[in-house]
Amino acid sequence: MDNCNVPVVQTIDLVKRYGDGVGTLALRGVNFQMKQGEFVAVVGASGSGKSTMLNMIGALDRPTSGHVVIDGHITSRLNDEGLASLRGDTIGFIFQFHYLLNEFTVLENALMPLSVRKGGPTRDELAWVKELLGRVGLADRMKCRPTQLSGGQQQRAAIVRALANRPKLILADEPTGNLDSQNGALVFDMLRELNSQFGIAFMLVTHDDRLAQEAERIVMVEDGHIVADYDVAKVEEQIV
Amino acid sequence: MLLVVFLSSLINGLQIGLIEDMVGSIPHVTVEAATPGAKPLWQMPGQGGIRGKVVTNLEKMATQKRKIEQWERVSQTIQDLPEVAGVAPSAEGSGFVSRGAKNVGAIIIGVVPSEQMKVMSLQNRVVEGDFNAVDAQNAAIGVKLADDIGAKLGSRIRLVSDQGIIQTFRVACLFDMGVDQANESWVYTGLPAAQAMFKMGKDITTLDVRGKSLFAAKRISDQIESFSSLKVTNWMDSNQAFLDTLRSQNTAAAIIQAMTLLASAFGVASVMIVFVVQKARDIGILKSMGATARQIQKIFVLEGLGVGIGGAILGSGIGTGLCFLAENILVPGETFGGRPATIVPMSWDIKYVLMASAVAVIVGLLSSVVPARRASKLDPVEAIRRG
């Protein structure tokens, strides 16, 4: 581990069991680390536990045992308020579906994390969100309702929303899963660009191997275990 | 909400009407000299040598009502009671009314009209003429009695007291007390005229008392009994069955209103729960953005408050509108509580509206608490997946 680089994500023997009694073990002791600015793709078959892992890391769900450390905070030691502020200030979420709120305009949706956390954006934050919307090609759609946008545009608006509070970590669960391949590639490129430009760590759950190959690092999950974890560049080097 | 305003107005209207009908024509409390009934002698008042006294009293009773002694003093004492609004003396006795060849038994009541008006709601009861005109030459008679003897306003009638004194009066006023017995036998004359006809001198037989509130009657009557041995009757004791009916009606009304409130609370709560289910995904998203449970709870409690306030405004408006509408539908030719009868008697009061509004807002708030807690406890992963 690079000493000057505190891990933004660390999991220690992470176990998640669903249901009472024996239940289903979704995660069976996952140890995982992620540095700031890393772009990690988590791949695996459906039901392998990759989404569960993402939810644990995103503090959306509590582990059965083990620990998740996000940016130095041990999530199991935080109360609900603490988890909420961790989610709000440190993490951004992108889901398979855009989940924009239809009652609000695109701009209002993109500003929503700031409204939720602080009651509204500062002038700088507003400029930042507008700039991001411009970058993803939604400059002229800010006043539209989400229903007036195409699927790709909606997902891009959702990406801006995830970035609004300048998080250290973006968790994306199949962000291109609901898009056609062209739009999917576009959105993926956008994520990659935001990653390299702002140094935000990205953890991307996907079952699209082709997209995963574009990441820096691939983590393979199977049956609640990490079965492979490698840097794409190094592997390619070895192959070459 | 609407129902609460409407029901309160209706039930209160009904009761005011009924009580007016029942009590308006009679004084709240009547004070008379004690009339000895068939009591064992040892229960009679006074000490020693009572036997002779009692017998004389009973003999007197047979012909004439007993007089109240020193009535001015008694009247003043009653007037000074805190809950008393007015006291009126009257001299009462039986006799006949005759006009031409017709002779009808009557109760002749001598009153001071201005005083009597204060203790009975006579203004609503006057059909024709002016009760204030009643004096030594002018009398007021019931409509039924007027019919029976063929008298009209301005007709001359002759009164014969049980003391054999005859006097002629002009009919100056016709009244309808809403009670047959009064309408077919009561004759009001001036107090001195009646006193003369019954050879009473300056004495009277009855003090009619009006309380500041209808329901003070029982207390006033107890107070009078505590300082005098006079016979005191009040409308509440005389109409116990009616009062019991009113009381059970009140209970029934309260139960109906409570049920209505409960139903509307469940209504609000279920609407809110549906809302929470509908918005589950949005709640999950807001939570993923760092919304705290408290923030989510606040949204739904405010929503409930909104529903409550909206319901209060809408309900009061429509309820009040309905009340006024119902109040203006008259049933021709009928009266209720001395006023023209409406299809349903209403008594709308801003008090009910404010009360019901406050309740609606509280109910809205309370019934949003459970859904709000539910919303705030939603597991974001579940909420997002399910939505």
Describe the structure.
The complex is a heterodimer of chains A (240) and B (387). With 240 residues, chain A is of the alpha/beta class. Chain A has one domain (36-49, 79-239): P-loop containing nucleotide triphosphate hydrolases (Rossmann fold, 3-Layer(aba) Sandwich), CATH 3.40.50.300. Chain A has eight helices and ten strands. In chain A, the strands form two sheets. In chain A, strands 6-7-8-3-9-10 form a six-stranded mixed β-sheet, sandwiched between helices. In chain A, strand 4 (65-70) and strand 5 form a beta hairpin. In chain A, helix 5 packs parallel to helix 6 (181-198). The longest helix of chain A has 18 residues, at 181-198. The two termini of chain A are 26 Å apart. The model of chain A has no long low-confidence stretch (mean pLDDT 88). With 387 residues, chain B is of the alpha+beta class. Chain B folds into two domains: 83-210, no CATH class; 242-386, no CATH class. Helix content of chain B is 53%, strand content 21%. Chain B has helices at 2-23, 50-63, 71-79, 113-119, 143-149, 180-185, 191-197, 217-227, 235-238, 240-278, 280-288, 293-327, 350-377, 380-386; strands spanning 29-32, 84-99, 102-111, 126-129, 138-142, 156-161, 166-175, 186-190, 206-211, 231-234, 330-336, 339-342. Residues 46-63 of chain B have low confidence and may be disordered. At the A-B interface, helix 2 and helix 3 of A face helix 11, helix 12 and helix 14 of B.
